[in-house]
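hey so i finally got around to running the thing on that chain from the lab meeting. sorry it took forever, my laptop kept dying and i had to restart like 3 times. anyway pasting the input first so we r on the same page abt which one it is
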Amino acid sequence: METPRPDPTPTAEQAADLPGEPDAFQRLWTPHRMVYVGGKDKPLDDSVGECPFCRSPQRTDEDGLVVHRGEWAYVVMNLYPYSPGHVLVCPYRHVSDYTELTDAETVEVARLTRLTMTAVRSVSHPDGFNLGMNQGPVAGAGIAAHLHQHVVPRWSGDANFMPIVAHTKPVPQLIGQTRALLADAFAELD
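ok and heres what got predicted. didnt touch it at all, straight out
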């Protein structure tokens, strides 16, 4: 006897139909993020040879998505951006913790973060920024072995329901195009 196939039509479960006590929290389900959480394109280990933040600056700027190079650190596009223009400021040296940076690296990461904000403002006029470093996997670091500072431009109303309702993340510009615009903006700042 043939096993019946499940109905492929997606349905929404109602919380009231499930076990447990209701609480005051609302849930925002984001299954599209499972590609990132599941480690797509993540190195098998965090050693220097596998680290994308060590490999990226060894490529051409276009191939490595490098926006700007400093003496101790560089700016690179985030391959999985939270918003258009999301970049990372990374030291060249493979260190995992902020306390491991030399004074020169610390100053340059801070300086490049400021320059990045200025360049992004000149290119895309965001209303604000999220800046941050996730130290360790428990803090949300996808690649914990190589320190990186997130610079995430934000616009009023940029958090919408397209990814949840339509399974679509609007990205108005290709990463390579954004990289080129930001690289040009950096060139004008130097």
